[in-house]
């Protein structure tokens, strides 16, 4: 599963996380960044997690985006087993609206960082944009695409609000 295929790995704890994590995939696709999405559960598929994290760098990935909800150990465990930068996305949980996910991911002990984003869709999109920013440090064309993406976003913001927008 860690054959060379993409610059960014998007991993998630469950199929149910895809509704959120697909926004990271869509954002990367929109900026022309190669990525692969995988279900890797820290709790249900621990061997898959181990194999993925240990092999991620050798497989050619440069950044990992990890989304999980509830007792969300996936980003932290992944970060513990790979030198690659790991961005964590707290998926909104039913019981606690993602606050459990957020606190599980953000409170890493010193020494093993996870760059933690906002809960839900915004976090997934921003994780992708951060991954792009990292890749753009060594890819001038990608840096240009990211700059254009941000300029287009700015262009879309009206100066004055409309009643029925
Ligand atoms: C976590 O448990 C997953 O990341 C998911 O957000 C949550 C619920 O998983 P399912 O019960 O929907 O598979 O491991």
TrEMBL record:
Provenance organism: Aquamicrobium defluvii
Protein name as annotated: N5-carboxyaminoimidazole ribonucleotide mutase
SMART domains referenced in this protein's UniProt entry, alphabetically: AIRC
Catalytic activity: 5-carboxyamino-1-(5-phospho-D-ribosyl)imidazole + H(+) = 5-amino-1-(5-phospho-D-ribosyl)imidazole-4-carboxylate
Domain PurE: 6-157
Record keywords, A-Z: Isomerase, Purine biosynthesis
Top EC class, one word: isomerase
Record-listed E.C. numbers: 5.4.99.18
GO terms, molecular function: 5-(carboxyamino)imidazole ribonucleotide mutase activity
Cited Pfam families: AIRC
């Amino acid at each position: 599963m860690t054959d060379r295929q993409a610059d960014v790995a998007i991993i998630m704890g469950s199929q149910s996380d895809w509704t959120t994590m697909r926004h990271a995939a869509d954002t990367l696709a929109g900026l022309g960044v190669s990525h692969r999405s995988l279900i890797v559960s820290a709790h249900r598929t621990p061997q898959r997690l181990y194999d993925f994290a240990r092999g991620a760098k050798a497989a050619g990935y440069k950044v990992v985006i990890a989304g999980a909800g509830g007792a969300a150990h996936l980003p932290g465990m992944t970060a513990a087993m790979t030198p690659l930068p790991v961005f964590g996305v707290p998926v909104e949980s039913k019981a606690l609206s993602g606050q459990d996910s957020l606190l599980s991911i953000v409170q890493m002990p010193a020494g093993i960082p996870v760059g933690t984003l906002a809960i839900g869709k915004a976090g997934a999109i921003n994780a992708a944009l951060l991954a792009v920013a990292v890749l753009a440090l060594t890819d001038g064309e990608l840096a240009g695409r990211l700059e254009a993406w941000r300029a287009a976003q700015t262009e879309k913001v009206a100066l004055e609000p409309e009643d029925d927008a």
